[in-house]
Design a protein that fits this description.
Keywords: Aminotransferase, DNA-binding, Pyridoxal phosphate, Transcription, Transcription regulation, Transferase. In the C-terminal section; belongs to the class-I pyridoxal-phosphate-dependent aminotransferase family. This is PLP-dependent aminotransferase family protein. It comes from Luteimonas notoginsengisoli. This protein is an alpha/beta fold. The chain has three domains: 90 residues, Winged helix-like DNA-binding domain superfamily/Winged helix DNA-binding domain (Arc Repressor Mutant, subunit A, Orthogonal Bundle), CATH 1.10.10.10; 248 residues, 3-Layer(aba) Sandwich (Aspartate Aminotransferase, domain 2), CATH 3.40.640.10; 133 residues, Aspartate Aminotransferase, domain 1 (Alpha-Beta Complex), CATH 3.90.1150.10. Helix content is 39%, strand content 13%. It is built from 15 helices and 16 strands. It has an eight-stranded mixed beta sheet with strand order 4-11-10-9-8-5-6-7, with helices on both faces. A four-stranded antiparallel beta sheet has the order 15-13-12-16. Helix 8 links the parallel strand 5 and strand 6. Helix 6 crosses helix 12, helix 7 packs parallel to helix 8 and helix 7 crosses helix 11. The longest helix is centred in the last third of the chain and has 28 residues. It is globular, with a radius of gyration of 31 Å. The structure holds pyridoxal-5'-phosphate. Pyridoxal-5'-phosphate binds next to helix 7. The site of pyridoxal-5'-phosphate has 13 residues, from helix 7.
Length: 512
């Protein structure tokens, strides 16, 4: 058939011209609309379509590469017979169906991805997001070296479920020196962060319906894992001395979850009296204690607070530490100190969950700790974090004018800032205004199980440099002034109805 017969080509306007032409020619060939076995000469088609000849040449080249045009050259471009198979139609989007198991239903009920607190704020220039690690080029270099070394020397076999001995030894050493916890490598289980630790704790200790006491407020991710396992949650109050142990429902409570070194999120340090009380409660009632020591490494004033586990004579405490704060959360490594009577069950649970944590990362971390690199990194990080925390506190005080109350816990990578006399809805208004200005702020409300009458902000400072904190505070002040303007001297502010102020261990809650 002559090639000069007219062709009806429609370009779809999407992307570069040669790609549009390629698509149009493919469609014409498949639909038999090419009018013959030969494609028109490139010059002719270019003229007809008002395109450059190079565009047509590029399209023909692409068609030849994909098998639509026969390899023969010289006497024109022949349409291949048969044509290459059409790609399979795009998969039909499956409608989501209802949960297929009780567990799936529970997970759906308590895990709404779009409502996870502390997520990125769209369009934020700066964000006081909690849990963001410090950018640290020195750590990146050191870690790359450790990983490359470990990749060469680590066995490619499955690592032991309990974790590499070298990492368990290094962890024991570290725990003894820094956290006052004296255990042996056989007591340590290497886990995929605190999140896996709590899942294993639930596997080993809980049946659906068991009562678990959690601090109010608390780290929501732990509550959600426990709820998904069918636990019945009891929120127990927290004051300046930490968990109010007397509020725990006696006898029926199977597990008590606490953050004694640095209560999350208020920052209270659990007093010795409360620690003794809690351990006594566990020994008397047979309850277990989950000690979440998530950021015990970073304390800026005073001595580091020893872990609750260091006082545990009856082996009721399951102690969990993580490298998410001390290193970075992407590592997904942590450790669980198993009470000796539960060792076997924990190792079995870990095997069931994932056989073991990744071996190369474990080996790299073991060497990083044993060689002293980890503690050097901790020292430098603590210095930087201290400066960031001071910059944040100074800035907040400067713009407070009686509107903020800073809960200064002298530790960790976050602060709680209360807004006296304001409720959650007003805090949300501040958060929304700040977002409009390009600033990420986070209400403390999602960390409570029960609605509260006072609102506050959880302000993470680990991910912002001092200059960034200063810039973010300019935006913060603008939002604060816009949403909660300071009343003139003629109109004294309405005295807020307040609950007693949370005080830290030294009684130094800073009202600004
Ligand atoms: C109270 C608390 N525990 C534990 C973690 C760390 O969890 P993971 O080790 O799973 O990263 C965090 C992190 O934000 C936390 O806030």
């Amino acid at each position: 058939m002559p090639a000069e017969q007219p062709m009806y080509l429609e370009l779809d306007g999407d992307g570069p011209l040669h790609a549009q032409l390629t698509r149009a020619l493919k469609a014409a060939m498949r639909g038999g609309a090419c009018g013959g076995t030969r494609l028109p000469p490139t010059r002719l088609l270019a003229q007809e379509l008002g395109l450059s000849r190079n565009t047509v040449l590029a399209a023909y080249e692409q068609l030849r590469a994909e098998g639509f045009i026969d390899g023969r050259t010289g006497s024109g471009s022949y349409i291949a017979h048969p044509l290459p198979e059409a790609p399979p139609p795009p998969p039909v989007v499956q409608q989501e169906i209802g949960p297929q198991s009780v567990r799936a239903r529970r997970m759906r009920d308590c895990h709404d991805h779009s409502a996870i607190p502390g997520r990125d704020v769209t369009g934020a220039v700066h964000s006081f997001q909690y849990g963001v690690p410090m950018t640290n080029p020195a750590l990146t270099t050191a870690w790359a070296r450790e990983l490359s070394r470990a990749a060469q020397y680590t066995s490619p076999k499955y690592p032991p479920s309990q974790g590499l001995l070298a990492l368990r030894e290094a962890t024991c050493d570290y725990l003894a020196r820094r956290r006052g916890v004296h255990v042996s490598p056989q007591d340590i289980l290497i886990v995929g962060g605190t999140q896996q630790a709590i899942a294993l704790i639930a596997d080993v200790l809980l049946d659906p319906g068991d009562t678990v006491a959690i601090e109010e407020p608390h780290y929501d991710a732990i509550r959600k894992v426990l709820l998904s396992r069918g636990a019945s949650m009891q929120a127990v109050g927290v004051d300046a001395q930490g968990l109010v142990v007397g509020e725990i429902v006696q006898r029926r409570t199977k597990l008590v979850c606490v953050t004694p070194s640095h209560q999350f999120p208020t920052g209270a340090v659990m007093s010795l009296r409360r620690r003794t009380e809690l351990l006594g409660h566990a020994s008397r009632t047979g309850a277990w204690i989950f000690e979440d020591d998530y950021d015990g490494e970073f304390r800026y004033e005073g001595k580091p607070v020893p872990a609750l586990r260091s006082l545990d004579r009856d082996n009721r405490v399951v102690y969990v530490g993580t490298f998410s704060k001390a290193m970075f959360p992407a590592l997904r490594l942590g450790y669980l100190v198993m009470p000796p009577q539960l060792r076997r069950d924990f190792i079995a649970a870990k095997w069931m969950a994932d056989f073991s944590s990744p071996g190369i990362e474990q080996a790299a971390l073991a060497h990083f700790i044993a060689s002293g690199g980890f503690e050097r990194h901790l020292r430098l990080t603590a210095q930087q974090l201290k400066l960031r925390r001071e910059a944040l506190i100074d800035g907040l005080r400067a713009c407070s004018r009686g509107r903020l109350q800073i809960e200064d816990s002298q530790a960790g990578m976050h602060l709680v800032v209360w807004l006296p006399g304001r409720g959650d809805a007003q805090v949300d208004a501040l958060v929304r205004h700040a977002q409009g200005q390009g600033l990420g702020l986070y209400s403390i409300a999602p960390y409570y199980l029960r609605p509260q009458d006072r609102g506050g902000l959880l302000m993470g400072f680990g991910g912002l440099s001092v200059p960034q904190i200063e810039q973010a505070l300019v935006l913060f002040r603008q939002s604060l002034d816009a949403v909660f303007p300071v009343l003139s001297a003629m109109q004294p502010p309405r005295r807020p109805v307040q609950r007693p102020t949370m005080r830290n261990r030294r009684g130094r809650s800073r009202a600004s």
